[in-house]
Amino acid sequence: MIEKIYPRDQMKHFLLIDVIAIVYLCYFVLSTRSDLGLLGSLMSLSLFLVSFYIALWHRNIYLLAAVLSGLGTIAVLSIFIDPNLLMFGFIFAELLGRSKSKWQIGVGTAGIVLMHALVARWGVNDFYAKYMMHLPIIIIQILLPSILYIRARAASLQGQLDSANEQLEQYALQEERHRIARDLHDTLGQTLTMIKLKSELAARWVDKDPVQAKEELKDIMDSSRIALKQVRELVSEMKFISLTSELAHSRKLLHTAGIELEIVEQRTPPLLSSVEETMMALSVREAITNTIKHSQAQHCTIQLQMIDNRYTISITDDGVGLSHKEGGNGILSMKERMQALNGTLTVECSPDGGTAVTMMLPLHQLRKESTAT
């Protein structure tokens, strides 16, 4: 029910402040005798509340009209009751800062200046003795809409930039997949077809002509060596990222962000293929990036261990936990990388607070070649 009265996205930061301010204003106006009388005070407060409600829910021309109406109401109350009521101009100055139009910000700011000018002219007898004490408040109210507009604009542009970077990362990942699939089809496809045909010939000749069958088997061995070489070339063309170097880089980034990192490694890590290690390193990078951007954590732990023949990397922090910001393309990218390796990725709330990201890689994939081969 309250969501229909007050916007949900503003409840956390503004609801309590607005309620306190409105209750105090109503009490002060109704408990103070003035030339407005009770009826005039009630009408002024009603206009104030209507203006506030309209400005609260709109970002277009209705917002500007409501702000100007509210500022005018505050000016009337300040002139007839108490100039200190100009403090409530902050309410409409803040609402004006949510406008999406520069010219509306300009007109509304002019309305703030006019409000103070009217009260200075008709509401204060000794201007220099009383009103000049409010000069810092006047300046802040005048600047506040522009500051809020600039901050919202910067946040919007940063959001667009983050979205564009995530889209580029997705595009690069898809292009890399397409390249690998294309190269596998163009290079390995023909070789594997040859192996299949030679195997069928060897099966036919094994009883009729063993010598010819041996020749076919030799060709199969040669083709297998060619296929192995082609796989090595495809893997070597990928940009390899060392998991060890990525962990060291993560430590530096977290230290710069003021987050303490603890790396717990229970045993020597298994040999991973270049593809596996690169994918795991990229997933760690994305998880650490999310920790820095969203977690507000002070401590982060990266644990590397073997669980049931699965290489597991767990990244936990003591931050604010999961939020809608952390459910975007970054998490999707990590899941896609792990799925490509037949692994799994889970993102959940940590038992002690914060977020826990767990990557599990089954150890039955292709392994990184040893120096012996």
UniProtKB/TrEMBL annotation:
Top-level division of the source organism's lineage: Bacteria
Protein's UniProt name: histidine kinase
Any GO CC annotation of this UniProt entry: membrane
Coiled-coil region list: 154-181
Transmembrane domains' residue ranges: 12-30, 36-54, 61-81, 101-119, 131-150
Gene Ontology molecular function: ATP binding; phosphorelay sensor kinase activity; protein dimerization activity
Keyword annotations from UniProtKB, A to Z: ATP-binding, Coiled coil, Kinase, Membrane, Nucleotide-binding, Transferase, Transmembrane, Transmembrane helix, Two-component regulatory system
Pfam families according to UniProt: HATPase_c, HisKA_3
Histidine kinase domain mapped to chain residues: 183-365
Catalytic activity: ATP + protein L-histidine = ADP + protein N-phospho-L-histidine
PANTHER family tied to this protein: NITRATE/NITRITE SENSOR PROTEIN NARX-RELATED (PTHR24421), SENSOR HISTIDINE KINASE DESK (PTHR24421:SF63)
